[in-house]
UniProtKB/TrEMBL annotation:
Protein name in the entry: Amidohydrolase family protein
Domain of life: Bacteria
InterPro entries, alphabetized: Amidohydro-rel, Metal-dep_hydrolase_composite, Metal_Hydrolase, Metallo-dep_Hydrolase, OTAase-like
Organism field: Pseudonocardia nematodicida
Domain Amidohydrolase-related stretches: 58-404
Length: 418
């Protein structure tokens, strides 16, 4: 595959700093071997062919979505295990292309993507965002990762079957399952701390795994210098996970003030995923969401915005996530518009850049336009720090996306694959 050459500079760029919520006067972002070397006065760079003229537009750090499912090409997750892994991989490439075209140069997969897909992205066999992967999520029997209906007995967990989760029970089983994901080079381990929408037999307000099981998984992750993210909705499930060492809580729609205090005490992260409930409500049935799951949506939809507001005002580390399934992933950028209803544009942008980079343990490398960082850049019309909702319409707002110093999306919104 022939890729675009690495740039030496992005010229005439108004550089946005999400952390300070400021935008500079026009500057030149100098690049060497895919990393930023200097943010220099305008006119420092030449006008050679290997430079990009931003035309005075705003230049953001590449966006980060910390909760995606790149192998979830359908909302009917039970059928993934019956799908050829080759077809799943081909569909994943298309989904990754779409994320990149929306300005997301880094994503964290929250169950499904494995070392093979991550390696394909690293080698540029798949043109997509940088991919942090965790393999299969860990679930107890009958938990959120158990896709069997109440009458189904057989459970095929062979490594080649592309289910999003693996079922394990008891301390020895969960240790083995965690170690097996870590063996593949996983960046994190995901566990199910409560029931969920897309699973057929559990309740939203249930808690899952015993304390000893959760502690064992956390111990294994920490031993490998990795961390655990936990799917949880209710304050009871969230608080329990935080006390047991889970670092990143996914969703958290039904948290309370006590949860906020625990987030701060443990310097943990909350990853709300509001757009997924909006889209599941509107079109989940059309994309294969089973009836049993459709009936659960209202339980979590109403509380999402209140939880986001409570967490932001309480000083929690809030990170951008979407959790969309199947063709609904095209609505990824709508999360910006939804969050802007209750928190500031700067807060929303930080959640998709600097705070997300801290969650990924990539401070200074991702989420900033600064010397030493990867040259992952998004050139946009407008000022997202003033109005972040411009990012909700990437087809019109995005001019160019640069990953590792290479233009990967052009001003027509087309992913460059060669």
């Amino acid at each position: 595959m022939h890729l675009s050459p690495v740039l030496s500079a992005v010229r005439n760029a108004r550089v946005a700093d999400p952390e300070t919520a400021t935008v500079s006067e026009p500057r030149d972002v100098l690049i060497r071997e895919g990393r930023i070397t200097e943010v220099a006065p305008a006119g420092t760079a030449g006008t050679e062919d290997d430079t990009l003229d931003a035309g005075g537009r705003t230049v953001l750090p590449g966006l980060i979505d910390a909760h995606v499912h790149v192998t979830a090409s359908t909302a009917d997750l039970a059928t993934l295990g019956d799908t050829s892994p080759f077809l799943v991989a081909a569909q994943a490439q298309r989904l990754l292309n779409g994320m990149l075209a929306r300005g997301f140069t880094t994503v964290r997969d929250a169950a499904g993507a494995d070392h093979g897909i991550a390696e394909a992205v690293r080698r540029d066999l798949f043109v997509g965002p940088r991919l942090f992967f965790g393999g299969k999520a860990l679930s107890q029997t009958g938990g959120h990762g158990d896709v069997r209906g109440p009458g189904t007995q057989v459970l095929d967990q062979h490594v080649c079957c592309p289910h999003l989760g693996i079922v394990c029970d008891g301390v020895s089983e969960v240790r083995r399952a965690a170690r097996d994901q870590l063996r593949t080079g996983a960046d994190h381990i995901k566990i199910m701390l409560s029931g969920g929408v897309a699973s057929p037999t559990d309740r939203i307000d249930s808690t899952q795994f015993s304390d000893d099981e959760v502690r064992a998984i956390v111990e294994e992750a920490e031993a490998a210098d990795r961390y655990v993210l936990g799917h949880a909705y209710t304050a009871r499930a969230v608080d329990r996970g935080l006390r047991l060492g889970v670092r990143s809580i996914e969703h958290g729609n039904l948290i309370d003030s006590g949860s906020v205090a625990l987030f701060r005490e443990h310097d943990a992260f909350l990853v709300p995923t509001l757009v997924t409930y909006d889209r599941l409500k509107a079109e989940g049935a059309r994309h294969g969401l089973p009836v049993a799951s459709q009936l659960k949506i209202d339980q979590v939809l109403a509380g999402g915005l209140d939880a986001l507001r409570l967490a932001t005002e309480g000083g929690v580390n809030v990170v951008f996530g979407t959790d969309l399934l199947g063709e609904m992933q095209s609505h990824q950028s709508a999360e910006f518009r939804i969050r802007a209803q209750v928190v500031s544009s700067a807060d929303v942008l930080r959640s998709a850049t600097t705070t997300a980079a801290r969650l990924l343990r990539a401070e200074g490398e991702l989420g900033v336009v600064a010397p030493g960082a990867h040259a992952d850049l998004v050139v946009v019309d407008g000022d997202p720090l003033d109005d972040v909702t411009v990012l909700a319409d990437p087809a019109h707002a995005l001019h160019t996306v640069v990953k590792g110093g290479r233009p990967v999306v052009d001003d027509a919104g087309l992913v460059r694959t060669g």
